[in-house]
Amino acid sequence: MLKNWLHIFIYQIKNNKLFTALNVLGLSIGISGLIFALLYWNDEQSYNAWNPEKEKVYQVLVQLSDMPALSDCALFLKPALDQDPNIESILYADSWYQKDKIIYKGKKEFVDKIINVEQNFFSFFPFEIIKGDAISAIKDDSSIAISYITAKRIFGNENPIGKQIKCFNQLFSVRAVYRIPGNSSIAPNVIINKMKQYTTSGLRGPFVLKLLLKVKDPSKVDLIRQKLERIYNHDFIAIIAKEAGFTAEVMTKKVGHFTVILEPLSKARLHSITDGYPEARGNYQFLIIMMGLSVLILILSIVNYVNLATANAVKRAKEVGVRKISGASKGDIIIQFLFETILTTSFSVLLALVIVELILPYYNNFLNKNLLLLANQFYVQLLLIFIITIFTAGLLPAIYIANFKTFKVLKGNFERSKNGIWLRNGILILQFAIAAFFIIGSNIVYQQIKYLQNKDLGFKGDQVISVSLNFPSIEYQSENVAQNIYSKYSIIQQQLYKIKGVQQVSTGLISFDGLDNSLAGVLYNNELFKERIINLDYGMFEMLNIKIIKGRDFDKKLASDTINSVIINETAEKLMNLKSPLGKELVIREQKLKIIGVVKDFNILSPELKVPPIVFNHIKTFDMAENINKVYIKLNADNLENTITNIEKLWSKVDTEYPFQYDFVDKQYARTYETYSKQKSLFSLLNIVVILIALFGLFALASYSIQRRMKEIAIRKTLGAETNVLLKELSKQYVLYCIIGFLIALFPVYFLLNKWLQNFAFRIDITIMPFVAGFIILLVLTLIIVLSRAYYATKANVLKYLKYE
After folding, report:
1. Which residues, other chains included, contact 778 with Cβ-Cβ below 8 Å and sequence gap of 6+?
2. What is the C-alpha to C-alpha distance for residues 666 and 668, in angstroms, rounded to an integer?
3. With a threshold of 0.90, does the pTM exceed it?
4. Which helix or strand (DSSP H or E) is residue 144 part of?
5. Inter-axis angle of helices 330-367 and 376-402, nearest 10
6. Given 13, 349, 484, 590, which residue has the most CB atoms within 10 angstroms?
7. Which residues fall within 8 angstroms of residue 457, CB to CB, at 6 or more apart?
8. How far is residue 47 CA from its own chain's centroid?
């Protein structure tokens, strides 16, 4: 029986090459799209899945009133946490990833993922210990644990255990080599334990160190959260109020309310409220969008298959009639056509895997991932897709064909009930609706990203490069660190000015990567405001074309500008309700500062966020020069490459320990909305795919429909009907379906795209133009396909279709 079915299937392929090719190609595109989405989904969902402690480990996050949530906590929480019976262990950590060189036998290896944590780190993140042991791995400040990959780079085939290496200008003994079993929110290359200097220092600030808790009973974790909130809002406020001479109530009004969030490790990757861990958050919205669009395309592919299969069913009506006369039941007919769907789907899956394998390198580059087609979970999901596709794509056409009336079809009467016609038409309308959704949606997404790219950011960074600067560790151990660092920077600045093509040089504790959203306290008229404080050197505003709209810039000729002068932005001016800001006095870190200027607002954060209130002071004002780690250089547009090459030569003498690294400021900022640019690219690509699949179905269905009406066309032509009249008659139903599909898509596309646009503080308004353009594109494509098939039909030989009448 199977052999007979196989022969029939091969015969049908030979006689319907176009329909078969369109079916296989359409399904393979839909399946490959879902495979890509699943690979991304599985990778993101796998973060921390390997960790047996993921449900018991919580990160402590703190939010002060309207400030963003921070992953830095207070050291004064420790005594209360040590006494809590539900807490199994606590772990303080320094500011996550640091970078330094590792020296072994004169060989230097640059490492950029070093973490400084307490001894019990491996009880929170039980990495696989390959050599050594977890207990002594980081037992003191002279012990170090390194990853397997780092060990290979440094030691080659030597056994690292017990070897002495130099890092952060100190000797460490290697006590353990580890391997991380899977995707992890913390994935360091090197682990050290120099936390004692912090945990015994008596630091009193509310935002000092990272804090992780390992609890015994996760159901009681809210009690811990309430206790920590009380410490912040009662004990801490009472202490600083007493020191400042205020009542606790007055101080609460000045400082604000602390909210503590205990976030489980199991939700840290996709559902965190902040970038609490060093491997950052995944983009859950992008993940859902990708999965949703991929499922939608697969549905479109299956719908396309069903439409083509039911349209092509009449050609097989006599075959079904003969089989029924020969004794085949409806069940036999259904199983036969399901068998054919299994074969078609198998070819489609194989082709989809080939497509995925070919495109996967580009996809990995697109997502900055390293995804592979190797996982038991993925193959189970692929099998599930295979089964669902067979039943959804194959069952309906099989039942439809099996219900042909035997005697009618054997007599040549292939007319079906109106239900079958409406089914095909309904499916075609659904295809038009999905295509309209993608066409309009991609247009709106494109316009939003284009708006961000062309928006006046308030600064110009296309000719400004940010160069990483690392001074030797010994520089930070001398007296007057800030003064010495600033002096060395000034020498580098003078050397840079000697390079042809360098226009301006400056520095500052400012970044355009959107990562720093911290706020600090600024006192004005005895009222506390939360604002961003940025330390700059002379010339930064001029270099970046940031406009000063009131007052003046910092001036080298005025010594007071490095002592008691500040510049604010427009948002800060509005926040503090300053009518005439020049000369007004602010208090920052108990130091009085006078406003000398106001700059026009400019973007330093992702376009999801509004411009924060900012206060700028000179880098010497609070002795912040020791934190200089970047130098900003403005270049002439001519001969950029030679200028950068000469800067690199200078840097090899200035920064001998680290490789030369630079980045254009405008490109750095563009990466803050890179995720949305990727969504634009994804939407555009899927838009093309959807249109192609929809056109496949429309082409095949129009060809079939017009072929069925060839006798009618022949008769009309014989009676003198003109070609344009015939074209109008043959195409009008498809135009109607196009309009209905477009109207169905209107509400979903407006609702979902409006919701997507709410991510942005700076966004376009949805106008009628994307909808008009979308309808015109959809209508034009429909008419091109339908009219081309209709025109071909009107030129056919009339006698061929009338000779039997």
Report:
1. 432, 435, 436, 439, 738, 741, 742
2. 5
3. no
4. strand 143-147
5. 140
6. 349
7. 602, 603, 669
8. 15
